[in-house]
């Protein structure tokens, strides 16, 4: 049966001409490209087009329906706007402290969990839970947790004799309320990523170090940390991009103008305030491109500092 | 061969799925009706708020709320052949969603709290021609000040025109808890209290309640989102105003006038009688409950006022006084929602019919049941309103005496600038004069850069 089949294939007059074979191959390829069209159209419509439209809008005074070309005036307005630079300051302030606290703390927790003989998965789940919580829901709960009179944080501080804070009701402490929330929400992700790297470090290195008489701390300092470089670079870059785009939690906690007194208004919130509450789409678009440039430059610096290859 | 079959099968399956959905869509209800005066016409109505097509339960009272189907059925009965479709959106982000809908012409009728911004874009239909040719309709049905206050400037008009009919009413007033006044032995607020009276009585009622021993606060007001309205009303009470003009080129702000500075200093004074969290909208969690610890609530609104008072058994406790009024008897935020017809509507006559229906007794009673406030005078005669006359009488009075011209700039930057500076003053970053000078400077610069 199989022999007959081979014979049939081998018959010269039954062979498919080269030209038609190519045509069929092309036809098959075209079919698969057809399947790509919906997602390609989606990308064009919802990603590429808005990027170009936003760029065009940044040169116009626009309220969505009436437009007037004004050249670079929107960029000038944004770059000379005190609230914009205040929002840049807030974004960096919150971002710096979030990363500076969350990454080392997450790494320490991951190291502790990694060295725990039992219950690793339990701790992984517990620490990762905040990260799967919606940041909007978490921010709403944090507003109660940080309530100046009824909040559990102030209650705990008072119980141990420490001074309490007004948290979100005071511009000097409101940024720290956001940092606290951001660290709490992000740390689970850091722990999981660090744990994955920790478990990938060869145990032979630790065994060799032990034979050479290295203490546990020395092993951590001279084996673990140098082997975590790639992970730290990844966390630094993704953390910074996320921090520079921060919007959801500050919108929930302080509204579009980052109350109190614009103390938690980030660049994202500034864009939202001007674009979607004041119909100043030109200003919002210009601010978006300025924010894009800031993120681009900062990510480039981060890549250089962390020596991470793209 | 197998490849060819699977390819064919895949194409067949895809075609079948498409056909199936096409048939489903074709069979679904909502197609135009073929008979009647309005045959084949559809009016798409956008509504903002917690509305639902089906019956639901009021989360506060536990009572059943009829769905929007009630309105649909009645309107379609009154207008044979017509079809009503609702597009319901939440209050969150309503401005940008409405903008998108108006730009794309998705609805015929819109609920438009920010009507001034949209009228200026030329996306709304002027209503005066419809009113003039409709002998059955009169704007006298609306509560005083409502029609005039919702007028706006069109893209080319020099004078204010009517682009929307008053639809849902709203007002601002001062609410207080009589029990706390009794506990402290303080006389109730007068019908038209002064700033001094509020300050004096707030001071007396801050501290440990002499009867219950609980911590009480004399006053509460939002120090963030709506603080600009509290300040403007305080200034209005002593003869001040936000400024003047309606078209942006005519607008002049008076944010740092002596009256505004005095108003902000008054807010800074009474802040000491309020809980710590007013700038982050905190500290009022017990308000409108039996455990309430706040004596006077400034800048209150009517949303669910009756329902919550009734459900919590506070009928004997909650009372209302008017906000501060100027010499002409005007003062306080003018709020609410008008309804308007989109310029791109294909069924404008039917849309006008919907506008009349939505402001009729039938529809207004329905909306009142759902917890929002009516905009028509006849509501005062409804049995449902009369039984809560003590509470609702002052609310209707407040609705007819807001400050005009209204704060039409309050959806944009000037409001955010003013609010941020009030917050700066309330949190001690700047004194009242410095904060308002900065607000005036930034708002004026913003006006000039438009």
From TrEMBL, chain A:
Record's bilayer topology term: Multi-pass membrane protein
Family: Belongs to the binding-protein-dependent transport system permease family.
Compartments, as annotated in UniProt: Cell membrane
Gene Ontology cellular component terms for the protein in this record: plasma membrane
Taxonomic path: Bacteria, Bacillati, Bacillota, Bacilli, Bacillales
Highest taxon of source: Bacteria
Keywords, alphabetical: Cell membrane, Membrane, Transmembrane, Transmembrane helix, Transport
InterPro entries registered for this protein in UniProt: ABC_transporter_permease, MetI-like, MetI-like_sf
Transmembrane segments: 30-52, 92-113, 125-146, 176-198, 219-243, 281-303
One of the GO BP terms on file: transmembrane transport
Keyword Membrane: yes
Main location: membrane
ABC transmembrane type-1 domain mapped to chain residues: 88-302
Protein name: Carbohydrate ABC transporter membrane protein 1, CUT1 family
Any matching Pfam family: BPD_transp_1
TrEMBL record, chain B:
A Pfam family it matches: SBP_bac_1
Coiled coil segments of this chain: 422-449
Segment forming the signal sequence: 1-25
Entry annotated with the keyword Cell membrane: yes
The keyword S-adenosyl-L-methionine appears for this protein: no
Keywords: Cell membrane, Coiled coil, Lipoprotein, Membrane, Palmitate, Signal
UniProt xrefs under PANTHER family: ARABINOSE-BINDING PROTEIN-RELATED (PTHR43649), POLYGALACTURONAN_RHAMNOGALACTURONAN-BINDING PROTEIN YTCQ (PTHR43649:SF33)
UniProt name for this protein: Carbohydrate ABC transporter substrate-binding protein, CUT1 family
Organism: Terribacillus aidingensis
């Amino acid at each position: 049966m199989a022999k007959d089949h081979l014979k049939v294939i081998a018959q010269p007059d039954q062979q498919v001409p080269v030209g038609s074979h190519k045509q069929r191959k092309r036809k098959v390829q075209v079919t698969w490209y057809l399947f790509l069209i919906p997602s390609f159209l989606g990308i064009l419509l919802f990603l590429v087009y808005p990027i170009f439209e936003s760029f065009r809008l940044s040169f116009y005074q626009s309220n969505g329906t009436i437009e007037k070309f004004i050249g670079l005036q929107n960029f000038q307005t944004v770059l000379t706007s005190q609230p914009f630079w205040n929002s840049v300051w807030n974004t960096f302030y919150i971002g710096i402290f979030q990363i500076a606290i969350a990454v080392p703390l997450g790494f320490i927790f991951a190291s502790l969990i990694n060295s725990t003989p039992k219950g690793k998965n339990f701790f992984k789940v517990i620490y990762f839970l905040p990260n799967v919580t919606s940041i909007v829901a978490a921010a709403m709960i944090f507003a109660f947790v940080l309530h100046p009179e009824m909040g559990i944080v102030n209650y705990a501080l008072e119980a141990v004799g420490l001074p309490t804070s007004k948290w979100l009701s005071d511009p000097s402490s409101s940024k720290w309320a956001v940092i606290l929330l951001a660290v709490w929400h992000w740390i689970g992700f850091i722990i999981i990523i660090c744990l994955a790297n920790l478990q990938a470090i060869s145990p032979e290195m630790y065994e060799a170090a032990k034979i050479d008489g290295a203490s546990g701390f020395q092993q951590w300092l001279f084996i673990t940390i140098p082997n975590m470089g790639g992970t730290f670079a990844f966390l630094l870059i993704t953390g910074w991009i996320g921090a520079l785009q921060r919007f959801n939690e500050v919108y929930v906690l302080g509204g579009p103008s980052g109350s109190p007194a614009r103390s938690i208004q980030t660049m994202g919130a500034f864009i939202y305030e001007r674009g979607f509450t004041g119909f100043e789409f030109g200003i919002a678009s210009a601010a978006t491109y300025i924010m894009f440039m800031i993120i681009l430059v900062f990510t480039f610096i981060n890549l250089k500092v962390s020596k991470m290859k793209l | 061969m197998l490849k060819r079959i699977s390819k064919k099968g895949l194409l067949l399956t895809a075609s079948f799925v498409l056909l199936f959905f096409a048939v489903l869509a074709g069979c679904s209800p909502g197609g135009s009706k073929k008979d009647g005066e309005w045959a084949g016409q559809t009016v798409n109505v956008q509504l903002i708020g917690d509305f639902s097509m089906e019956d639901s339960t009021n989360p506060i009272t536990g009572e059943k709320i009829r769905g929007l189907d009630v309105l649909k059925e009645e309107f379609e009965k009154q207008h044979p052949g017509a079809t009503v479709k609702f597009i319901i959106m939440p209050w969150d982000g309503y401005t940008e969603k409405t903008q998108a809908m108006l730009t794309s012409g998705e609805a015929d009728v819109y609920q438009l709290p920010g009507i001034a911004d949209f009228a200026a874009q030329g996306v709304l239909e002027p209503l005066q021609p419809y009113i003039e040719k409709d002998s059955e309709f009169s704007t006298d049905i609306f509560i005083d000040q409502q029609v005039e206050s919702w007028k706006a400037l069109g893209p080319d008009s020099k004078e204010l025109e009517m682009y929307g009919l008053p639809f849902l009413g709203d007002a601002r007033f001062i609410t207080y808890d009589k029990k706390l006044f009794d506990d402290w032995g303080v006389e109730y607020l007068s019908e038209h209290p002064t700033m001094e009276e509020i300050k004096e009585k707030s001071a007396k009622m801050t501290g440990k309640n002499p009867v219950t021993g609980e911590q009480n606060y004399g006053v509460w007001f939002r120090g963030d989102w709506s603080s600009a309205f509290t300040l403007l009303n305080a200034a209005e009470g002593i003869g001040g105003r936000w400024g003047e003009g309606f078209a942006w080129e005519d607008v002049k702000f008076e944010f740092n006038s002596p009256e505004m500075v005095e108003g902000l200093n008054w807010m800074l004074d009474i802040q000491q009688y309020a809980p710590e969290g007013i700038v982050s909208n905190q500290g009022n969690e017990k308000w409108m409950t039996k455990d309430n610890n706040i004596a006077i609530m400034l800048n209150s609104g009517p949303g669910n006022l009756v329902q919550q008072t009734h459900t919590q058994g506070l009928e004997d406790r909650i009372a209302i006084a008017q906000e501060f009024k100027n010499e002409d008897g005007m003062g306080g935020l003018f709020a609410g929602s008008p309804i308007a017809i989109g310029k791109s509507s294909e069924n404008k006559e039917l849309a006008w019919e919907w506008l009349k229906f939505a402001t009729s007794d039938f529809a207004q009673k329905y909306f009142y049941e759902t917890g929002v406030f009516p905009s028509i005078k006849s509501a005062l005669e409804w049995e449902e309103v009369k039984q809560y006359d003590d509470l609702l009488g002052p609310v209707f009075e407040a609705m007819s005496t807001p400050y005009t011209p209204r704060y039409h700039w309050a959806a944009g930057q000037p409001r955010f600038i003013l609010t941020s500076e009030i917050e700066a003053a309330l949190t001690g970053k700047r004194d009242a004069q410095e904060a308002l000078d900065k607000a005036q400077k930034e708002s004026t610069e913003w006006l000039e850069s438009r």
